[in-house]
């Protein structure tokens, strides 16, 4: 799962580097990629993404 996330992160980072306007998108991954605390730190980004994914799935399963 971490390897899959790393591929997605690297692709999105490449898009932002080619077109800086893409860095203004409001999606979660882009925000992490341009935020100074997370920028160029794939491990931190992956940790955040997985936390949101698993926390969201647990919340949804309890709600039903």
Describe this structure in words.
The chain has 64 residues and is mainly α. Helices cover 72% and strands 0% of the residues. It is built from 3 helices and no strands. It has helices at 2-18, 28-34, 42-63. The longest helix is centred in the last third of the chain and has 22 residues, at 42-63.
Features:
mainly alpha, 64 residues, globular
**What radius of gyration results from the CA coordinates?**
13 Å
Structural class: mainly alpha
Strand content: under 5%
Low-confidence stretches: none
The count of DSSP E runs of length 2 or more, i.e. the number of strands, is 0
Q: Give the overall silhouette.
A: globular
Provide the helix percentage.
over 70%
Quick recap of the structure?
The protein is mostly helical. The chain has helices at 2-18, 28-34, 42-63.
Write the topology of this structure:
Blueprint: H1 2-18, H2 28-34, H3 42-63
């Amino acid at each position: 799962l971490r390897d899959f996330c790393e591929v997605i992160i690297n692709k999105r980072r490449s898009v932002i580097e080619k077109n800086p306007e893409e860095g203004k998108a409001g999606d979660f991954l882009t925000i992490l990629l341009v935020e100074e605390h997370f920028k160029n730190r794939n491990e931190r980004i992956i940790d955040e993404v997985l936390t949101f994914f698993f926390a969201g799935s647990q919340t949804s399963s309890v709600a039903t």
